[in-house]
Amino acid sequence: MPKKYIASIDALRIFALVAIVIGHVYTNNETLDRLIQSWRLPIFFMLSGYFWSGHRSVGQEASKRWHALLVPYLWWLAIIGMVSLLVRVLIDLSSIRNAVQGVLLGGSDAERPLTTFWFFTALFFSTVIYRALSKFPSWVRLSGVAAGLVANMLAGHELALVPLSAATALGALVFLEAGRALRALQGKFADGVLFAVAVGFLALAAAILLTMEDFIPVDMKSGEFPPAAVGVAILIGGSLMIAATAAPDIPQRVGHVLAKVANGSLAVIILHPFILWMLRPEASSIPLSVVASVAFLIPLGGGSCCPAHGFPKHYWE
Known about the structure:
Blueprint: H1 7-25, H2 30-36, H3 42-50, H4 58-91, H5 96-105, H6 118-134, H7 138-159, H8 168-186, H9 191-211, H10 227-246, H11 252-262, H12 265-279, H13 288-305
Helix pairs in contact: 1-10, 1-11, 1-12, 1-13, 3-8, 3-10, 4-5, 4-6, 6-8, 7-8, 9-10, 12-13
């Protein structure tokens, strides 16, 4: 199925961004964490699988992802990392060692204001690895995806310690595969059937969330890949993507606005932890709703209105 622009996918990306920011602001809300933690970042990996191109070589994939993911990673790592280290030297020298380690190693070692930087390297490694696996027969690819997931289910915390989330990327392969499988299924069923599937996915995810008292959400950065939570991530992510892609066409003017806003998504992922680091909501009297709004809208506005090579578009494709 050829790729085409789908405005409702931009709406979905914006919705997921809101969930990411809210989850980082309301850190002590267990109910909210239970509802959004498992799917809010995996859905971006699923979108990469959904828009997967079958015509690139491994080298072309690595080159594209380098420019789309690692260039902004290095660009903003230099800027935000330098500011972070300078502030720690001036205010809290005792934390400088951990901060330097986070800048150099990335992944699970990167703390606020670099909280989300693991996402870039994990998506880079997972897409390049998935491209390499895709050159083999389907059973080899699926075996590799399964092996990566099982390894992270059994030893995710240890694998999360590998620099740049390179081993965590192996667990993320399942979300790429799920997105790609969803795209393949859409060409075989009518929209009405797909909506029914989406409702069924949500119902099953709700049943798991409501009945499992000891439910532990997916936390890719720290290596948490509980089987039930991985299933919930795919079910909720899949239902949202089906709803977005099978929905009636959005008016062109609205689509243009959504596309403009969604262009700032990478800026939100990169910069909202920096804003939270400056505002320190856990130690201030600023209402959390205000903190969340500021952390979301300022990066979104900057990335939407002033897209530069530090905020490339279509990084998920």
